[in-house]
Structure formats: C-alpha cells, structure tokens
Amino acid sequence: MMQKEKELAEFFKIFAEPARIRILLALEPGEISVNDLASKLDMNQSSVSHQLRVLKDHRLVEVRRSGKQKFYRIFDEKIYPFLQQADWYCSRF
To answer: What is the reported pLDDT for 1?
Structure first.
C-alpha cells in the first residue's frame, strides 16, 4: 500500500468513534471548556478529555489554558464541509 493511502486510512479512523464526531459538532459554535463540553454532551469529563486528546493529536482541535481550565476549539473550520459531505453520503443508505 502506498503512503498516501495509509495516511488517508489513518485519518478516517479518527471518525470511527462517535464521541469524537459529537465533540467536533459541539465545537462548531465556538470555544468551550472541557467541563461545559462534558455537560453539554452528557459524558463524563474523563471520556471527553480522552477524545479531545485524540482530536488534538490529529490537529483537529486546539486548546487554550486559562488558570486550571482548558478551552477547546476547532483547529480548522474546513472540517465542517467534510462532515456535512459524510453526513449526506451516509443519509443515502
């Protein structure tokens, strides 16, 4: 397999976890703290933090610290047209 195909397959693996998609969609309006995000998604803070770490490692989100709190936002808004296309494709089945 060629390198480009391997990288693309790894990218798509990020979206295999529904919680990551939920987090990305919840971040669309703007920056939010981990605690507020956990509350909004009805998830525990530890699970949200874990998924945010994966998203951050793949440069889909970025973090800002303010005191003891971390605030996350989308790294690049271009992810939303991608998610909309994926949603459109999935709705066809």
So the answer is: 60
- Taking the model in full, what pTM does it have? 0.89
What is the average per-residue pLDDT within 31-51? Answer: 97
What's the mean pLDDT when you consider all of the chain? 94
Is 24 inside a domain boundary? yes
Domain for residue 2, yes or no? no
Distance CA 90, CA 92 (A): 5
Residue 39 lies in a domain: yes
- Look at the chain and report how many structural domains it folds into: 1
